[in-house]
Design a protein that fits this description.
Blueprint: E1 2-7, H1 10-19, E2 27-32, E3 42-43, H2 51-61, E4 65-68, H3 71-76, H4 78-84, E5 89-90, H5 98-101, H6 103-113, E6 120-123, H7 126-133, E7 140-144, E8 153-156, H8 159-170, E9 181-185, E10 190-199, E11 203-205, E12 210-211, E13 214-216, E14 220-223, E15 228-231, H9 238-258, E16 264-274, E17 277-284, H10 292-298, H11 303-311, E18 326-333, E19 358-361, E20 364-367, E21 370-373, E22 377-385, H12 388-401
Parallel strand pairs: 1-2, 1-4, 2-3, 4-5
Antiparallel strand pairs: 6-9, 7-8, 7-9, 10-11, 10-16, 12-15, 13-14, 15-18, 16-17, 18-22, 19-22, 20-21
Bound molecules: adenosine monophosphate and glycine.
């Protein structure tokens, strides 16, 4: 088979890495990819939002399966365009991707289907949003309705912060994405990421994973795209897992199908494990980054088989096989990230990683034959071990091996689970 992966981050590198192990696969292309992905795939200089060009490329190259990494093209309808051209593609349709593309759509669907989530109200004008806030003294969460590159959520600890968030959103900070907002109750607990393959009817969850969103040790400082992840999550018990499948994933997929938008692809449920049971913080319509990096190192099954079964509505026939133990990924970021950061710093040590450690590239490029930094998140150093402690020791040994000027990372990935 010829496979095309759309995207350029650590998640896409991990997908390319896993797909390259399938005996079914002959050639892999990645659009646009990065310098690490280029070792396993032919990188094609087409941006993920250039849907027409991607369709043309897939048609002319005889691509048998396209896998879409990031949310923006999914929400813009890339899957519909590929299907119209009779090209097999892994990901939800534009209508189904609204689970991530519109927080109001997702919240209203959950309310209707009885899926546990934070209490909320939605607003399309600033005045009523501000008036509503006045009624709640405690911490509140303000969310822009549309896609905002992971920056559209403000957890406000007091009324002034909440009001500021509402004002900046209606002032157009996120363009149209912020002209409608959700104001919701603040939930307390541990966060867990549950990714599940969905073929429109059947839900097949991957192992539970946990991201580390804040830049600083002990979950402090500003939010990032994710500074590290591990899987599985020991406190995600089989009892919690059962509740998540029966009360969250299955009712959501059923409600989507009944409303006429069957969900096919991977559904990412960001959950808070509260004292009242698991509740949904958000849905994403794609694989998580960096959760995908440890998950792909743990997955034993052929990913291409699973993706084909997803597209063909045959997930009921699939059982996921996993390697025993745990996996962990530590993100190496550029100085300044998540604010403005440095670029173009030479990276050393990638050729001397301990065996079994993978460096999934997120933001790298080649400059005159030298690997250099090219993004906020640069690499995700990922390893598998017989347990979480062993996986972390291996991943951190890799972290020590690789260097670039301004390298920053968290030393406490996975600590909550140890
Ligand atoms: P999101 O971009 O939707 O993933 O939200 C970013 C982060 O905000 C989440 O990972 C949570 O840590 C936090 N968050 C979102 N909604 C809530 C909520 N209702 N209560 C507490 N924290 C939340
Ligand atoms: N790890 C967070 C995300 O992929 O949205």
């Amino acid at each position: 088979m010829r496979i095309l992966i759309v995207g350029s981050g650590g998640r896409e590198h991990a997908l390319v890495w896993k797909i390259s192990q399938s005996p079914k696969v002959k050639e892999i292309y990645c659009a646009p990819g990065n310098a690490g992905i280029a070792k396993l795939a032919t990188c094609v200089p087409i941006e993920p939002d250039n849907i027409n060009e991607l369709v043309n490329f897939a048609r002319h190259t005889g691509i048998d399966l396209t896998v879409v990494g990031p949310e923006a093209p999914l929400v813009a309808g890339i899957v519909d365009a590929f299907k119209e051209a009779n090209l097999p593609v892994f990901g939800p349709s534009k209508a189904a991707a609204r689970l991530e593309g519109s927080k109001i759509f997702a919240k209203d669907l959950m309310r209707k289907a009885g899926v546990p989530t934070a209490d909320y109200a939605t607003f399309d004008d600033e005045e009523s949003a501000l008036a509503y806030l006045g009624k709640y003294p405690g911490p509140m969460v303000i969310k822009a309705d549309g896609l905002a590159a992971g920056k559209g959520v403000v957890v406000a600890s007091n009324l002034d912060e909440a009001k500021d968030a509402v004002k900046t959103m209606f002032a157009g900070k996120f363009g149209n994405a912020g002209h409608k907002v959700v104001i919701e109750e603040f939930l307390k607990g541990q966060e867990v990421s549950i990714l599940a393959f969905c073929d429109g009817k059947t839900v097949l969850p991957l192992l539970p994973s946990q991201d580390h969103k804040r830049v600083g040790e002990g979950d402090t400082g500003p939010n990032t795209g994710g500074m590290g992840a591990y899987a599985p999550v020991p406190f995600y018990t089989s009892e919690v897992s059962k509740q998540v499948v029966e009360k969250i994933l299955e009712p959501t997929i059923k409600a989507m199908a009944e409303a006429g938008y069957p969900y096919q692809g991977v559904l990412y449920a960001g959950l808070m494990l509260t004292s009242d049971g698991p509740k949904v913080l958000e849905f994403n319509c794609r694989f998580g980054d960096p959760e995908t990096q440890p998950l792909m190192m743990l997955l034993k099954s052929d990913l291409v088989d699973i993706m084909e079964a997803t597209i063909n509505g045959q997930l009921a026939e699939i059982e996921l096989e996993w390697y025993p133990g745990s996996a962990a990924g530590v993100v190496l970021a550029s100085a300044g990230y998540p604010g403005s950061y440095t670029k173009g710093e030479p990276i050393s040590g990638l050729d001397s990683l301990p065996s079994g450690v993978e460096a999934f590239h997120a933001g790298t490029s080649l400059k005159k034959g030298q690997m250099v930094t090219a993004g906020g998140r640069v690499l995700c150093i990922t390893a598998r071990g017989e347990n979480l402690k062993a996986a972390l020791e291996k991943a951190y040994a890799g972290v020590e091996t690789v260097d670039f000027k301004g390298k920053q990372y968290r030393t406490d990935i996975g600590h909550k689970a140890l």
